[in-house]
């Protein structure tokens, strides 16, 4: 029998999650943790210090997700495009992601967090893969919230890899190309059982998806935070959820108000 699940510690300010009906709380929040480098530059610090400061922000946001009822959080930790950065920064980010997973795994597991990994294996350090797979294995039975760490991940890369796998199935005669559908593609994504993104959250004022979960976020509501990632905490997430809850999600449908009025006796 595993350890009993404990709630995350409260926010130091004493703030508590807003009371939002469960049906208006997003099931899956995808997060682009942007602005670490700019946060550090504004303070005359090396970019690496911004990444270090961002660790606490992620932990606090996961705590806030649990408190408000979000079941899935996906965090863009290292993209397929991040290899273009300086060798020094890439080396730091590899070591940092590895160490964060090792350092925070047990704490998040005590909250009931299941940790998963989405991304490509090629080029990724073996030690990083080991920590990600260990975290997946050790937390697989947790069900309070799922944190998907997206490391060496890119939305286009994910779709290209799925297309390649489908093509191999067709070539082998195991799949009829005429039966390939959106459901088929979804089955070959990195985490096929990951639900669609409801809320896409990005910090630091930038307003773009940057190749993150472009398949899963096709109908996501976008919220862009002005603050850099190290300045984000669970209260930022709660404000974004309140914004999400106020929106009318139609998924391509529409309501004809004039026709609706005509039906009123």
Task: Explain what you see.
The chain has 8 helices and 6 strands; from the N terminus they run βααβαβαβααββαα. It has helices spanning about 35-40, 45-70, 85-110, 125-140, 155-170, 180-185, 235-245, 255-260, and strands at about 30, 70-80, 115-120, 145-155, 200, 220-225. A 6-stranded parallel sheet has the order 3-4-2-1-5-6, with helices on both faces. Helix 2 runs parallel beside helix 3, helix 2 (about 45-70) packs across helix 7 (about 235-245) and helix 3 (about 85-110) packs parallel to helix 4 (about 125-140). This is Isoprenyl transferase. Pfam families: Prenyltransf. Belongs to the UPP synthase family. It is an enzyme of class 2 (transferase).
The major sheet is characterized as: 6 strands, parallel
Radius of gyration: 20 Å
Give the helix tally: 8
Low-confidence stretches: none
Distance between the termini: 62 Å
State the share of residues found in helices, binned by percent.
40-55%
User: Could you say which structural class the secondary elements and strand pairing correspond to?
Assistant: alpha/beta
Name the helix and strand elements from N-terminus to C-terminus, one letter apiece. Answer: EHHEHEHEHHEEHH
Strand content: 5-15%
What would the average pLDDT be, to the nearest integer?
Answer: 94
What is the overall silhouette?
A: globular
- The neighbouring-strand order within the major sheet is 3-4-2-1-5-6
The count of β-strands is: 6
Organism: Oerskovia rustica
Pfam families: Prenyltransf (PF01255)
Function: Catalyzes the condensation of isopentenyl diphosphate (IPP) with allylic pyrophosphates generating different type of terpenoids.
Family: Belongs to the UPP synthase family.
